[in-house]
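Annotated sample (chain length 173).
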Amino acid sequence: MESLDQKNVGHQTCPQDIHNVVKELKEEMKKLQKEKQVKQVAFSASLRDQGPGDIGPFDTKIILIFKRVITNIGNAYNSSTGIFTAPVRGVYHFDWTMKGYGDIPTGGALFRNEELIFVAYEQQTSGWVTSSNAASLFLEVGDQVSVRQWEKTRVHDSQFHDTTFSGHLIFTM
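Output written by the structure step:
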């Protein structure tokens, strides 16, 4: 019967090699845990924190700051700036809804960084109006997405939180 030493001839491992392997495994585990956390990105917010109110009209596009955040998994949406910043490279889905009334149109545009993606716009002569749109976007880490109020429009929100902005990560790349 062979001894253990005879079986392992030429295959000896030194403590330094084992230490390096353990260190690499720990680093890989940390990386996988971080990726798992980053894969969980979703937010949903309405324009006003409470009560009814209007924004606009303005002569230029402005970033709308959706203040009532009901979900912000991954903390990628900033309720102080109204900007979503991609924490990981991947495909994300966004949707936004704008409410207005009267004879002033309502509208908002989705922007990736400074690039206009899609517009949600509606105008009628009286009554309440709602406009919405959605987009799936490929984003690199650090890309920023926002909804900007269209020029010469009025956006309304109420205690029912009618004007909203939401997004989530579909998959990483």
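Annotation: The chain has two helices and 13 strands.
Annotation: The mean pLDDT is 89.
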